[in-house]
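hey m, so remember when u said the tokens were messed up on ur end? i reran from scratch. heres the input so u can diff it against urs
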Amino acid sequence: MRGPLRVLAVPAALAALATGCGIRPTDVVEVGDPATVRIAPAGSAVIVLYFIGPSSPRTVLPVTRRVTTVGGQESGPGPDKVLGMLFGGPSASEKAAGLWSELPDGASTLGMSVDGSQVRIRLSSSVTRISTLARLQLVCTVAHLSTARAGVQSGALVTIRGTDGSIEPSACPV
């Protein structure tokens, strides 16, 4: 009879230890607003592109890339170049980190116009059937262009037009 009692005594002792730890329950303690992070402060020598990552397969993640300086001057690339980099997909190191793009292969930007907080981009491909993540990649990258040449205002609404129609204006939720 010693064997079965010993088997029952071990779980009972563990249960007593787990429930008798002396920590009392408390209410939620408010400590302030959630943290915010500035990914690419204005005037910095980086651009921000949005890709999909393994830790967030249902949304997009900001990825920063350094901008080369010319003659000591930090001048970021124009919107066409930034969107070209987005359509080029993740770099080798970004791919190694598990990032990917859902933008259609072979697509490119034909133009972009800015009117205050309204941004319109034209693509060389179909847009009505691209995935929600591909739309987010475009909208967030365009909405967060901070170069002076782009003139994009914070919180911009982005309309995407392609060869088969357009997608209604939307803002980046990230």
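this time it looks ok to me. Strands lie at 46-53, 56-66, 109-115, 118-123, 157-162, 165-170. if urs says something different then somethings off w ur setup not the seq
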